[in-house]
Amino acid sequence: xxxxxxxxxxxSFYGKSHILHGVSIELAEGELVTLLGRNGAGKTxxxxxxxxxxxxxxxxIEFFGHExxxxxxxxxxxxxxxxxxxxxKIFPNLTVLENLSVPVSGPGPWTVERIFGLFPNLAERRxxxxxxxxxxxxxxxxxxxxxxxxxxxxxxxxxxxGLAPLLVRAVFATIAAMRKEGISILLVEQNARFGLEVADxxxxxxDGEVVHSGSARELAQDEERVRALxxxxxxxxxx
Length: 239
Ligand SMILES: Nc1ncnc2c1ncn2[C@@H]1O[C@H](COP(=O)(O)OP(=O)(O)OP(=O)(O)O)[C@@H](O)[C@H]1O
Ligand SMILES: [Mg+2]
Known about the structure:
The chain has one domain (31-51, 82-238): 3-Layer(aba) Sandwich (Rossmann fold), CATH 3.40.50.300. A six-stranded mixed beta sheet has the order 6-7-8-3-9-10, sandwiched between helices. Strands 2-1-4-5 form a four-stranded antiparallel beta sheet, covered by helices on one side. The protein is globular. It has eleven helices and ten strands. Strand 9 and strand 10 (209-215) form a beta hairpin. The protein is of the alpha/beta class. The model is unreliable at 233-239 (pLDDT under 50). The structure holds adenosine-5'-triphosphate (ATP) and magnesium ion. The site of adenosine-5'-triphosphate has 13 residues, from strand 2 and helix 1.
């Protein structure tokens, strides 16, 4: 299987704070890989570095064989890399429909109508302002927006964050469906149970480093190990 993403030895900083200490991550075509880790482990920073938003000061990133290490993020997204940032980041003063017309939609199966088919709540609220949406609806909108570019890779930063259990299931069902369509997915998740259930492989980060990588199924069977590595405690148990 060919690699769609290959990141090697990334070192990233916020000002003088050295956050990522040599992170290496790979994603094969059609693969779903979950990135686990405690709060502050560097998961979001890793995605931001891959997207060129917090460019790595050392290391090398390749998407589809193109070296993108110093590319601006718009160029990276044009390669077919969708990104759903943490905290949703939708436009509060645009309607649902307007939010969905912001991305430049690429050719492929995802259209606004198809997004509405997937998330009927969103369809009903198509003329509501972004700021009027519930947390769950905002999350759906953020995912819908990323799908509209018809990405080949999707980077998802905690899509289940703050959602009620039923919506968490809906989001994970969506992720599984996207994957079936052949989208390669890198998923950051604190909900270890769901994150491991859907994934082929897993990386666990701690303190800006990858401290474990391997098969998701194997790690899922070792709850104690998950807890020790990722501190993925009560949230997983509660669901
Ligand atoms: N804009 C910033 N300026 C300075 N330090 C930052 C900034 N954003 C994050 N950090 C620090 O970088 C480290 C890694 O943060 P990051 O957001 O990547 O963690 P995370 O694994 O995504 O955590 P969480 O699970 O809480 O989202 C943390 O110590 C955090 O305090
Ligand atoms: Mg984060």
